[in-house]
Amino acid sequence: MDTDAENFKTTFLPMGRLMYAEAIRILGDAREAEDAVQDVYARLWERRDGLAAIANIRAYVLAMTRNRCITLAGSPSRHFTDLTEADAGCAASISDEIEARDRMVKVMDIIDTLPDNQRLVITMHDIEGKSKEEIEHATDLSADNVRQLLSRARRFIRSCFNNQTT
């Protein structure tokens, strides 16, 4: 067996339940959660050569999973179960999905108002799932600058979101 495949299996496959739990928490749908986990596994496989440089693989994988689920939750092509087919328990789930989608739209609207450098860094990191190191190389920003821009963007988003919901 290929050494890359062996390393991948021993490192990432044990995280499957953790990834699935995170995906189901965000998406609320088992089939979509499974798809999200598979998408993350595919992206991890594509990036396998650069993953050795990641200090905290578990956090990195969970961030990728969250980002993929957020992307899926905000996708306009996302289909909800038809109410005529749903039982009473599913109706609450659909309501939760719609509420989560509305929250995501609000967050994306707030991101659009960020200064260019903050919007770029938060999009690359929290939406596209790029590591801070990848962002440094792509933008020629220092590690401290990337960290600071992420912190400021998140603080601004949190503040605006909390003001909108209260």
Descriptive key words:
single chain; 166 residues; mainly alpha; 75% helix
Strand runs, count: 0
Please tally the helical runs, counting DSSP H or I stretches of 4 or more residues: 8
From the alpha-carbon coordinates, what is the Rg to the nearest angstrom?
Answer: 18 Å
Main pleated sheet: none
Structure class: mainly alpha
Mean of the pLDDT scores?
81
In summary, what is this structure?
The protein is built from eight helices and no strands. With 166 residues, it is mainly α.
Structure overview:
Helix 3 crosses helix 4. With 166 residues, this protein is an all-alpha fold. About 6% of the residues have low confidence. It is 75% helix and 0% strand. The chain starts with a helix and ends with a helix. The relative contact order is 0.09. The chain is built from 8 helices and no strands.
List the helices and strands and how they pair.
Layout: H1 3-12, H2 16-27, H3 30-46, H4 57-74, H5 88-112, H6 116-127, H7 132-139, H8 143-165
Helix pairs in contact: 2-3, 2-4, 3-4, 5-8, 6-8
